[in-house]
Amino acid sequence: MSYYIGVDVGTGSARASLVKQDGTTVASCTKDTLTFRDSEDHRIFEQSTNNIWEAISTCVKTCLAESKVPPSAVKGLGFDATCSLAVSDLQGEPIAVTKGDALGKPGDRNVILWADHRAEKEADLINSTGSIVLDYVGGTMSLEMEIPKVLWLKNHMDPSRFSNCQFFDLPDFLTYRATADNTRSCCSVTCKCSFVPKSGWQPEFFKTIGLEQLIHNDYSQLGAANMNVLTAGMPVGDGLSKRAAEEFGLLEGTPVGSGLIDAYAGWLGTVAASSKTREGKVTSELPGFEESGHRLAAVAGTSTCHIVQSPQDVFVDGVWGPYKDPVFRGWWMNEGGQSSTGQLIDFMLTTHAAYPRLVEEGKKQGKNIHVVLQDLLEELKAREKVDSLTELTKDLHLYPDLHGNRSPIADPRMRGSLVGITLDAGLHDLARKYNVTLEAIALQTRHIVDEMNRKGHKIDSIYMSGGQAKNIPMMQLFADTCGMPVVLPFDHAGAVVLGAAMLGRFASEAQGKKAMEEKEQGEALWKIMVEMTPPGTMILPAASPKVKRLLEAKYKIFRESIDIQKRWRKEIEEACK
User: What is the pLDDT of residue 288?
Assistant: First the structure.
């Protein structure tokens, strides 16, 4: 029997799963990773590839030990990771990215995490250029992307040290570390590194922003020269290096698939699912490939990414892309996003005065705190004789961009706001604010979907993965707010890593074959997706006419709050002159 390993590196942990050819998980292991903050600068988030690699190695070896599957039965390996910037020297050893004297020297803290917002000035400079690269990121480059961060490093690092650096989107660093081959993935360089569809790197852009050094030596610091990139799952080099094979307990030469950013692995691991209702009724047969163009994958953890595929390029203001070939050759993808969703829920709970009481109640009742909050909301709904939780919190309005807006406004200066607060600091107030936080995330999801569809996409369903997918009331709120079905994966936590395992299977089946034509490659990958994706559970919109009216009114207020905040900001800026 053949097995495949998927490795998923998220914001706070690394996970490995060993799966069968049909997608069944045989063993899985998760290990936390370290994130370093700066107590004097809230924008800073750093990690370590050494720490991440150690966690991956532990997880892979644990899966093999628990399953008793021999290394010879593992036929392929795939990686996905966050879109964080990993920096190494020209030999692959880590280079520190922490500001100060250590910057650019050998050091463990060599990853600028996706959430790091230090490069605001650099992003502003890039956005002032009018370069063609901006056309493929929704018109505005986010400071979370890699080139603003590389420019920050260039502006703060000794020039001799900067010239000794290689720069990787994290998924590409992991395949490099696994194989000793630094061929980049189309997904990483296109989606996060300003690699333009059909023409690649733009030398005039790099010259304009002061990164002309990257052009030298045939883009050796960035890779992907002369359009040399691999699409999803294509074999990287000669497979696992001897060093990596020993670290993982696998065989040298085990095929390694070209990697994906984690959100795109979530798309891979969800959108080919058939689905059934919560009552068990099958609602869709095995989907054809074209159906993928109507299915939005929402990968919801600390943040949320919204991925959709289309046969033609679709330009959406404030939404990243269109990206060509990030997963399927010949197809385009757009990516919307919310910088803070799971993180926002945690923040709203943990900063409330009643949070210690909530934790205490959870322990006393033996329930998850989110279940306790839902019980409190149902209690309030009955007490106040209202028909829905939307009506219960009808006078409370949260705008959720506490960490700036990624989509569809693309404005890192946006901030959160809360209207309708009272002098209540108790558990019931916490429950109300929890509900309105979920509501705000749902309203912003609708904003993103509306803008995508307005510009040419034809999204008619949302395929969820990540931790938020287990919150059923929240998922019902998504369905009601967006007016479309929401499909939950068989395993909310396993869909992304399953997508990574699919890359490993594709690499195994493609290894040693002659170059595949576009159609043949696409059919082979879609076949793997259909065979390995378990059926999902569909949640249909179920809002009453009254709740629909309330949600529509709330959405109007949500959109107005954006305009009001921008107007207020302008008035304050004028007053400060």
Answer: 86
Q: Is the link from the previous residue into 408 a cis peptide, with omega within 30 of 0?
A: yes
Q: Report how far residue 447's alpha carbon sits from residue 257's, in angstroms, rounded to the nearest whole number.
A: 35
Long-range CB pairs of 347-353 (<8 Å, 24+ gap) are 347/402, 348/433, 348/434, 348/437, 349/430, 349/434, 352/425, 352/429, 352/430, 352/433, 353/425
pTM: 0.91
Please count the other Cβ atoms lying within 10 Å of the Cβ belonging to residue 156: 14
Considering only CA atoms, which of 279, 290, 171, 176 is closest in space to residue 232?
171
Q: Which residues contact 70 (CB under 8 A, 6 or more apart)?
A: none
CA separation, residue 94 to residues 86, 103, 167, 482 (Å): 8, 11, 11, 44
- The mean pLDDT of 231-247, rounded to a whole number, is 97
CA 58 → CA 23, 61, 254, distances in Å? 22, 5, 18
β partners of residue 16? 7, 29
Q: How far apart are CA 485 and CA 475, in angstroms?
A: 10
Q: Where are the alpha helices (DSSP H) in 68-145?
A: 120-127
d(CA 362, CA 374) in angstroms, rounded, equals 12
- Say how far apart CA 358 and CA 346 lie, in whole Å: 13
With residue 357 as reference, give the H or E element that holds it. helix 355-365
pLDDT digits (tens, 9 = 90+) for 258-290: 999 999 999 999 999 988 766 666 665 678 899
Q: How far is CA 554 from CA 63, 84, 96, 176, 337, in A?
A: 47, 35, 46, 48, 21
Distance in angstroms (rounded) separating the CA atoms of residues 187 and 418: 37
Please spell the DSSP secondary structure of 290-340, one letter per residue.
GGGGGEEEEEESSSEEEEEEESS----TTSEEEEESSSSTT-EEEEEEES-
Between residues 491 and 356, which one has the greater pLDDT? 356
pLDDT digits (tens, 9 = 90+) for 207-218: 999 999 999 888
Tokens of 321: 């892309």
What token pair was written down for 67?
């399953």
- Residue 79 pairs with which residues in a beta bridge? 7
Helices 545-575, 472-482: crossing angle, 10 deg rounding: 80
Work out whether strand 536-539 and strand 486-488 pair parallel, antiparallel, or are unpaired.
antiparallel
In this structure, are residues 488 and 269 in contact, taking their beta carbons and an 8 Å threshold?
no
